[in-house]
């Protein structure tokens, strides 16, 4: 019995050792070193290790408390010099950017990420699923502003002269420094509703946006005014003046 247990343990040990020896290792991986946020730009220092890789193979996303998950756009730098290869349309560049064990720096576009905590997610192709992504967080200070024009479209200049993310509801979207209804068709002659997870845009009776919608009349303040009515109104005014002169 004891000998059987020993054989079983030896077999399990052999299997475990063999499995560990052939455990898939990543052919491309990165080591995250540090991150910071300057002038609304997220800056990350990352070391590349392993097989060669193109910048265009790397997918970076960012999200925050008031910022939905989206692509993190920017440029890669090597030794302080930007790499013009990153961001090119697919097919325009066929060489490899990450070729050796090198420390790289990534800088996102400036004056975007104002006060808040942001999570960055990095993905790239590799032979092991366990090494296909890294995540890190970075805290950004506020971007100073004097007017809304100093902030991006999804922000507004707040009371503390700092760009602030617009806090729009689920039925709204941020654009032009304000929140718009997702159902807003940008037509003043429709009434927009959000009902049962869908949009309804009903036309307003008698509303117009141009003279072509008014036949022989004209569109004034989004209402059709007939030519006959305008002429009668003018004649009435002239008649009143003439009557007034006659009574002098």
What do you see in this structure?
Helix content is 16%, strand content 38%. The protein is an alpha+beta fold. A hairpin with a 5-residue loop joins strand 10 (155-157) and strand 11. The protein is elongated, with a radius of gyration of 33 Å. Mean pLDDT is 76; it is low at 6-21, 85-93 and 230-235. The strands form 6 sheets. Strands 1-2-7-5-6 form a 5-stranded antiparallel sheet, with no helix packed on it. Strands 4-3-8-9 form a 4-stranded antiparallel sheet, with no helix packed on it. It has a domain at 28-140: Immunoglobulin-like (Sandwich), CATH 2.60.40. The relative contact order is 0.11. The chain has 2 helices and 17 strands.
Notable features of this structure?
248 residues; Immunoglobulin-like; five-stranded antiparallel β-sheet; four-stranded antiparallel β-sheet; 2 helices; 17 strands
SSE arrangement:
Layout: H1 2-21, E1 28-38, E2 41-50, E3 59-64, E4 67-71, E5 74-78, E6 81-82, E7 102-108, E8 116-123, E9 133-140, E10 155-157, E11 163-165, E12 172-175, E13 178-181, E14 190-195, E15 198-203, E16 218-220, E17 223-225, H2 227-246
What is the typical, i.e. mean, pLDDT? 76
Strand content: 35-45%
The rounded distance between the terminal residues' Cα atoms is 135 Å
Which topology of the domain at 28-140 does CATH recognise? Immunoglobulin-like
The number of strands is 17
CATH class of the domain at 28-140: Mainly Beta
List unreliable stretches of 5+ residues: 6-21, 85-93, 230-235
Oligomeric state of this protein: single chain
Largest sheet: 5 strands, antiparallel
Q: Structural class per helix/strand content?
A: alpha+beta
H/E element sequence: HEEEEEEEEEEEEEEEEEH
Q: Which architecture name of the domain at 28-140 does CATH use?
A: Sandwich
- Order of strands side by side in the largest beta sheet? 1-2-7-5-6
Radius of gyration: 33 Å
Number of helices: 2
Shape: elongated
* Share of helical residues: 10-25%
């Amino acid at each position: 019995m004891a000998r059987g247990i020993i054989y079983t343990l030896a077999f399990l040990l052999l299997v475990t050792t063999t499995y560990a020896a052939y455990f898939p290792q990543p052919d491309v991986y990165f080591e995250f070193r540090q991150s910071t946020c300057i002038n609304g730009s997220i800056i990350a220092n990352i070391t590349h290790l392993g097989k060669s890789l193109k910048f265009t193979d790397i997918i970076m996303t960012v999200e925050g408390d008031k910022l939905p998950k989206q692509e993190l756009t920017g440029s890669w730098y090597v030794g302080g010099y930007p790499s013009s290869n990153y961001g090119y349309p697919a097919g325009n560049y066929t060489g490899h950017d990450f070729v050796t064990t090198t420390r790289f720096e990534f800088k996102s576009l400036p004056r975007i990420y104002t006060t808040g905590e942001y999570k960055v997610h990095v993905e790239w192709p590799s032979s092991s699923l366990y090494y296909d992504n890294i995540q890190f967080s970075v805290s950004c200070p506020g971007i100073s502003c004097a007017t809304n024009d100093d902030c991006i479209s999804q922000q507004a200049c707040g009371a503390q002269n700092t760009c602030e993310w617009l806090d729009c509801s689920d039925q709204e979207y941020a654009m032009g420094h304000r929140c718009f209804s997702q159902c807003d068709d940008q037509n003043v002659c429709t009434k927009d509703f959000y009902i049962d997870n869908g949009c309804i845009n009903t036309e307003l009776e008698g509303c117009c946006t141009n003279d072509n919608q008014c036949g022989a009349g004209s569109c004034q303040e989004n209402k059709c005014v007939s030519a006959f009515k305008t002429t009668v109104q003018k004649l009435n005014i002239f008649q009143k003046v003439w009557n007034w002169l006659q009574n002098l």
